[in-house]
Structure formats: C-alpha cells, structure tokens
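User: New here, any thoughts?
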Amino acid sequence: MDTRFSSPPDLTVVCAWCEAVVRSGAAGPVSHGICRECARSFLERLPFAYLEAIADDDGTVTLLSGYRFPLAEVRQDGSPPRLPGFPTAKGEGG
C-alpha cells in the first residue's frame, strides 16, 4: 500500500462504508478509509470503458488507497453490487 496518503500507523482505520477494521491501531480516535471488498464494489459501479481508460499498462486499476485490481477481477455482467449505504436504484438505500 502507498503510505503517502495513509493515516498515521498508530490510528485504527475503519471502512467508511461497512465499518470493517482496515488496520488496527492504538485505542482512541479512528480514521476512515475503504476496505478491499467495498473498493471492489465501488469499481464495479463505474463504466468498464472508464476503467479501461484509467488502467495501468499491466491491466490493473490502482486506487488512492493503494489497492490494485486487475480489470478481469472487476465484475462485467452489468448487475449493480449491493453496497451498504449506496443506493442501487432511485429511492433505494443500503
């Protein structure tokens, strides 16, 4: 993971979407990020043509979090993923 954009190592980091612990740290204040599963679900919501356009030469998409996903790993069947807190249709919530 690229640490230039990460929280100090003594902070606990939890996923802002699903509240899973991304990194354990000292008791006290926490920081928020995104877990790998929610990051993948986020990518699945983007148009595949866009992902191809921003992909690295090796066919991967790298997020600011440092997670790298091969394009082949991102679902291409067109069905929207169910991600807590993200609506998948007008008026539908998580």
Observations:
- The mean pLDDT is 78.
- Residues 4 and 40 are 21 Å apart (CA to CA).
